[in-house]
Amino acid sequence: MAVGGSGSRLAPAVCGVKAFRGRVDLVFGPAPVAEACDAVISGARARRSGARFGPAIQDVARFRLAGSQNSIAPMKKLTDDVWVLEGFPPYAINVYLLGDVLVDAATRFAAGRILRRLRGRAISAHALTHVHPDHQGASHAVCASLGIPLFCGAGDADAMETPGLMMQKMRPHWLSRSIGGIWQGPAHPVSRRLREGDAVGGFTVLETPGHTEGHVAYWREADGVLVVGDVVCNMNIWTGLTMLREPERIFTPDPALNRRSARRFLELRPSLVCFGHGPPLADCSRFHAFIASLPRDT
Questions:
Q1: Does residue 40 surpass a pLDDT of 90?
Q2: Within a domain: residue 2?
Q3: What is the tens place of the pLDDT at every residue in 46-74?
Q4: CATH code of the domain covering residue 202
Q5: Are 191 and 199 in contact (CB under 8 A)?
Q6: Containing H/E element for 194?
Q7: How far is CA 38 from CA 15, 45, 68, 86, in A?
Q8: What are phi and psi of 154, to 5 degrees?
Q9: Is residue 86 a contact partner of residue 114, using CB atoms and an 8 Å limit?
Q10: Residues 233, 198 share a domain
């Protein structure tokens, strides 16, 4: 890969490295991968300005990407029988373990990292909040590797089993089209089509359509733990800043229906809210105030 010379030659090199950085799943990968890619980009820019490129190459080698799994942080326990499988950047795309059930699976590039973190644990099933590419990406690989069944909302099951169907259902937009095909995992048979009131991993299924037709949330009444998927987010995907937000309209076919689903949570009074994107939240007053402030569509 040529990285020196004029700006016109530099740009493709930098873009190539950034593309590689995305394909190793920046949003759910070990930090050294991202850091190594940054080293290449920095080195390319340094060479453009006349600096020596050698040190940047040495920096890349120093990360030893093949052994980077040793730096992956373990699962983080949030409360009894609830863990989050942390990625990089932290909380960008969340994967949870509820008892012995894995919930969501990030992008298809996350399979190896998810499986390493689950090593030594008995996993009985894999369930989804919905089948967008950043939630079902590694589902096929995880289910096939562990020999476990896949559950998802009844309204999303056909999209999980039919290649390309979920992408067809999403609003046309350059961002979803560009990253969706890269992140999306293979189709996989759905063993159980979840409906309101079903039990999964000690949690109760709540049907929460809008972001997708078959989106579901998981609620544990005993201690007030709520896994909301993407009904509400706690991160701005454009800036990475922590904040309560509705899911982006470009990924949400029916925002009005999604708001109605969110208002279901006002009755629950959760003690801990776990999001598909963003850190968990124990401040129920903020969560409730945000939902109460959502516009009511007539």
A1: no
A2: no
A3: 344 444 333 333 333 333 333 344 444 57
A4: 3.60.15.10
A5: no
A6: strand 192-194
A7: 11, 11, 15, 21
A8: -55, -35
A9: no
A10: yes
Tokens of 292: 């109460």
Specify which residues 245 forms β-bridges with.
Answer: 233
Strand partners, 274: 227
Does some domain include residue 26?
A: yes
- 121 lies in the same domain as 24: no
**Residue type at 270 in one-letter notation:** P
Write the single-letter amino acid at 169: K
Residue 284, both tokens: 């129920």
* Euclidean distance between CA atoms 142 and 42, whole angstroms: 35
Q: Which residues contact 229 (CB under 8 A, 6 or more apart)?
A: 104, 129, 130, 135, 208, 211, 215, 216, 217, 275, 276
pLDDT digits (tens, 9 = 90+) for 173-229: 666 666 767 888 999 999 999 999 999 999 999 999 999 999 999 999 999 999 999
Residues for the chain: how many in total?
Answer: 298
Backbone angles phi, psi at 136, to 5 degrees: -110, 5
What element of type H or E holds 168?
A: helix 165-169
Predicted TM-score (pTM) of the model is 0.76
The single-letter code of the amino acid at 21 is R
- The first and second tokens of residue 183, run together, are 């992140």
Q: Given this model, what pLDDT does residue 275 score?
A: 98
